[in-house]
Amino acid sequence: MSKDAVDSAQAVAPAQTAATPADAGDAGYSKDLKARHINMIAIGGAIGTGLLLGAGGRLHNAGPALALAYLVCGVFAFFVVRALGELVLYRPSSGSFVSYAREFLGEKGAYVAGWMYFLNWSTTGIADITAIALYTHYWSFFTSIPQWVLALIALAVVLAVNLISVKIFGEMEFWFAIIKVATIVGFMLISIFLLATQHKVGGHTPGLSVITDHGGIFPHGLMPVVLVMQGVIFAYAALELVGVAAGETAEPEKVVPRAVNSIMWRVGLFYVGSVVLLALLLPGSVYSADQSPFVTVLSKIGVPAAGDVMNLVVLTAAMSSLNSGLYSTGRILRSMAMAGSAPKFTARMSRSQVPYGGILLTCAVCVLGVGLNYLVPSQAFEIVLNVASLGIISTWVIIMICHMVFVRRARAGLVDRPHFQLKFSPFTEIATIAFLLVCLGMMWNDPDVGRKTILLIPVIAVLLVAGWFGVRRRVSANTDKELSQLTK
């Protein structure tokens, strides 16, 4: 139901609607997430397998200029989260950008936003359980266990955590983030020590000479750096979790600005800083896609069990991503179900105030991923990762469009902007949307997987249109029902 409809109904019966949330999907949640949970969810969203594992292959392809790619993508990712943060302070909602799309773009906008986000996280969930199984196979003790069995066990464990309570989810994310931050900080301290002492790493003396003697900042030219942008954008996926989690914290107006503002320096420190240090320690050609760049460095200086430690950390990052995906899609689907655009059972809440219906639906798709691991274990990860990128790019584009409409209404005097604002609207939003669409278009240059992913867009569009015709009557009936209740 749109906010305009709610406002008009409130004019008729203000006394009766005072306790009615602007989004019916926001009713019934606990407020158990603390400031430390939100801050660590923001950190967890900023540090994932995209850095801990994916940076190796990207350094090999793009060289030291990868740091620039992370910086540029990080700036646009910050714009997205800043825009979402402003919308959160305007009206906190567990439905997050789906709720805002309903208000500013109508039910069709909310429908597209919600199902594309579900596509993102359900396919990311498949990638996560695939990654967990692959990382677990690193240890010989688990080698004999089929990949699909390990994937199923991982899914069952994270599902159990999500179904208990939001507080348990918050605690799990808190400690996952602590592990990731401690790892990055520890590696950076070791790297700085190696640079300061000029300790040789794999036969190379750390410093600027490692870059200048091996092709400079752009050893393979500019194009590989441009092409790697799409993968870097996916590395920042999950930053928008701050907006979803804000609906279950008692003081979003205090917590959200701190969490959002801290994202920028974390991006600079953890992503850009780590990549710069990696580039100063070893030539890009030494790194590879099948090994964490941190393991590459630590193994070159003879650190015992470096591979085991980093494999455990990357495993933790994948578990964290799966945990976040189940959490966020449960809330998003409930918001949609209350409006009629998702199956009714996804609106169900447990006694512990957890929207278990939506979580179970996401799990059902992930179970299909277990089947994918059984049928094509060597290709499962790459297939779903590219499909997920379509979901995250569309989600971020919708967030920026919602913010543009919000600012336009604020300038017309229809709504009030909070003090926490995205500056230079609408230029910031337009630049961000253009950048994201360019990143999407660059997938065409990858004929093996990226081009096939682009060709999926018309298929997804047809499915969305068909789905809308399937739910539009229910959405319309639900809107009429809410209006009648508000005007009684």
Give a verbal description of the structure.
The chain is an all-alpha fold. It has a single domain, classed as Up-down Bundle (Amino acid/polyamine transporter I), CATH 1.20.1740.10. Helices cover 72% and strands 0% of the residues. The protein is built from 22 helices and no strands. Helix 6 (66-90) runs antiparallel to helix 15 (252-281) and helix 16 runs antiparallel to helix 17. The model is unreliable at 1-20 (pLDDT under 50).
Q: What attributes does this structure have?
A:
single chain, disordered N terminus, 72% helix, Amino acid/polyamine transporter I, mainly alpha, 488 residues, cell membrane, amino-acid transport, 22 helices, globular, transmembrane helix
Arithmetic mean of pLDDT:
84
Supply Rg: 23 Å
Number of helices: 22
Succession of helices and strands: HHHHHHHHHHHHHHHHHHHHHH
CATH class: Mainly Alpha
The counted number of beta strands is 0
Low-confidence stretches: 1-20
Domains, number: 1
What can be said about the biggest beta sheet? none
- DSSP strand content: under 5%
Alpha carbon gap, first and last residue: 17 Å
Class per helix and strand makeup = mainly alpha
CATH superfamily: Amino acid/polyamine transporter I
Overall outline: globular
> How much helicity do the residues have?
over 70%
Q: How is the CATH topology named? A: Amino acid/polyamine transporter I
